[in-house]
Amino acid sequence: MPAAPALAPTPARADGAAAALARLLGPPAPAEVGPLVTPADVGGAAAFQDLVHRGALVALWGDVAAPAGVPVTATLRALAVRDLVPRGTVLAGAAAAWVLCGSPAPRVLDVVYPSGRHRPAPRSGRAPRQASVLHDETVLVAGVLVTAVVRTALDVATRLETGPALAVLRRLRSACDLDVRAAARSLELRHRWPERPRARHVLSLLAAEDDPV
């Protein structure tokens, strides 16, 4: 029996074959860039730093950045450091203020762990310390427990030098609606707060800015 004649390729088939061939022979498609970018996403540390220098990337924390034009929010900042804040610990102090309101990022993350829990393993970029933080003094941001505004203000007023503390507290007041008097009252209700006089002094300086003589 004679073989059936071969079917001529239809235009649709020809177009599909051409597209497939083009995909095979053409350059690979660029990798999809998400809201967070690391050196591994852009070909290494040198390329990463070059993109930051040129303004194509905005540095967030360490070797984590965001593409220029992506709004840098509390969620994005928390995501940038999520791997450095173990479950059961709380991001506090200047690091919490940075996440919450975008104050300058500290050099190391203040990571608080409760009594009875093992101290987090040493890791570059974080400084674990033991302290009590009540559940209602925290907020969850992108899976990271962060001290709420008033508790953050107390830690900042206690642990930072006066000038840097005031700069961070002003940012908390303007961007996160910190109630300075509420923070001062909260401080006086804490019977075992370390360095209470220092924190009281810093908060009084901030309150005086609201009520100049």
For the sheet with most strands, the description reads:
3 strands, mixed
Rg (C-alpha, Å): 26 Å
Total number of helical segments?
9
The helix-and-strand class reads alpha+beta
Strand content: 5-15%
Q: Please give the domain count.
A: 2
- The parts where pLDDT drops under 50 for at least 5 residues are 16-33
Terminus-to-terminus distance = 110 Å
Task: Report the mean per-residue pLDDT as an integer.
Answer: 87
Organism: Cellulosimicrobium composti
Protein name: AbiEi antitoxin C-terminal domain-containing protein
Task: Summarize the topology.
Elements (H helix, E strand, L loop, with lengths): L10 H15 L13 H4 L2 H10 L2 E5 L2 E4 L6 H8 L8 E3 H9 L7 E5 L12 E5 L7 E4 L2 E4 L1 H11 L2 H15 L3 H9 L7 H15 L3
Parallel strand pairs: 4-5
Antiparallel strand pairs: 1-2, 3-4, 6-7
Helix pairs in contact: 4-5, 5-6, 5-7, 6-7, 6-8, 6-9, 7-9, 8-9
Protein name: AbiEi antitoxin C-terminal domain-containing protein
In brief, what are we looking at here?
The protein is of the alpha+beta class. The chain is built from nine helices and seven strands.
Notable characteristics:
single chain; 2 domains; three-stranded mixed sheet; 213 residues; alpha+beta; 45% helix; two-stranded antiparallel ribbon; 9 helices
